[in-house]
Amino acid sequence: MRVNVATTGLTSSDVTAPGLGVLRSLRVPGGIEGRLIGLAYDPLDAGCFEPGLADEIYVLPFPSQGMTPFLKRLEYIHARSHIDVFIPNLDAELPLVIQQQDRLAEMGIRVFLPSPESFKARSKDRMVGFAQRLGLSTPRTLLVHDEAGISNAASDLGYPFWVKGLYYEAYLVSSFEEAMHRLRKITATWGYPVLFQEALKGQEFNICALGDGRGGLVGAVPITKLTITEKGKAWSGVTVNDETLLDLTRDVVRELSWRGPLEVEIIKTTDEGRYHILEINPRFPAWCYLCQAAGQNLPLAMVQLALGRNVPPFEVYQVGVGFVRSARDLIFAREEFEAIHSRGEITR
Amino acid sequence: MLSESSAERLKDLAVSESGFLFDPRTGSSFTLNETGRRIFDCLKHGKAETEILQALSSEYEADTLVLERDLYDFVIQLKAMGLLHT
Lengths: 348, 86
Description:
The structure holds two protein chains of two kinds. By secondary structure, chain A is of the alpha+beta class. Chain A is built from twelve helices and 15 strands. By secondary structure, chain B is mainly alpha-helical. A three-stranded antiparallel beta sheet of chain B has the order 1-2-3, covered by helices on one side.
C-alpha cells in the first residue's frame, strides 16, 4: 500500500509504548510502501532513533496542553508530509483525537477509532457496570476520590489489593502505608479518581484485537505474559489457545460496536477457573508486533479499514509463538540530535 | 484408565523429540526426561496402567515396584501442573 501512516507512542523505557510495535508491523514485506511518520512527545523517545523504522519524526505538544496546539502541529505535519492514516496509541491522547475525528477527516487524515460513547463505556471506572451488562465477572472494584478511601477499601477488599490510576499505573499494595504512598504517587500525575481493586489469584491473559465498528471482530490474538516488569508490563509472552478468551473478546467488541484496536485483559482464577475481565485498553498493546508473527497483522489490517477497504476477518493464528523484549542502546548522529531538539523533526 | 476430560487435555499437549512440552492453553512449558516422555506418549495413546508398566519393564532394567512408583509420581506431577485432570 502506497500510503503515509503516522503513529504516536515511540517511548521505550520501563513502560514501552505501542507505536514501535505498530511501526514494525507496518514495515513488514507487503506492508506499507509509503512513508512512516513517527510522532513523539519527547525528543529522546527511542523510536526517534530506531534504524529503518520511521522515515520522518516529529515532536508533538502534549495533549494536556489542549486541542489547539495539538491540531496546529498536526496540520503543519500534514502539510509537509501528507498523513493518509493516523494511529494514536496512547490512552491519554485518545479522548482528544476521538473528539476531533471529523476535523481530521476534513483535513484528509483518516483514523479508525471508536465512538466517544464506546470509548467511555469501557473506561476503568465503568468496567464493573459494563461487565455486568454482558454477564461477565470482574474483580470487586472501588472508585476512590480521597485518601480516606483507603481504610474503607482495606476493610472491604482486604490486603493485598491493586491501586490503579484511571489511565496508567497499577500497584499491588499490602499495607495502609503502601496504599497511601501509591495513591499519592498516582494522583500526583493523573489525579483522582483512583481505583482500588480486589487482587484475584490466577493466570492473566491479554488479547490484542481489532473491531470493525459494526460489532464484528476482525482479528484477535491471545497471549499470556511469561515475564513482567516491576510495573506489570509484559517483557516476554507467548500466544495461547483458549476459545473462551476469544468468545469473551467477541462479546466485548459486539457490545461496544468497537471500531479500532483494543487490548482485553482477563484473569482466570486458580480456585474456580472462572474468567474475570480486568481492563479493556482502547489501543494496541506494546506487544502488538507479535500478532503479525502469529499470522494476524492487525495494525496493517487497521490501516486498510481506515482507508475504507474490505478486510476479511482473520480465522486463525499460530499458537506457541512468543516474544522477548530487549533493551539496547541506539546510536544517533549529532545532526539528528540537533534536528529533533531545535526543529522538533527529523526527515530521513 | 484416564478420564475422558484428561484424555482430551492430553490431545492438546505437544511434546518434541527433546522432551519439550508446551501447553497451548496456558503458555506453560516443561522439560520431560526420557522416561517421562515415554510415559507421556503412552498416556497420550490411551494406554492402560498395566500396559505402560509392561512397556517400561521391557525398555528399562528396573524393579517393577520402582517403575510403578515412577509412573504414579509422574501422573501426580502432571495433575499438580494442571496437565491432567484430578
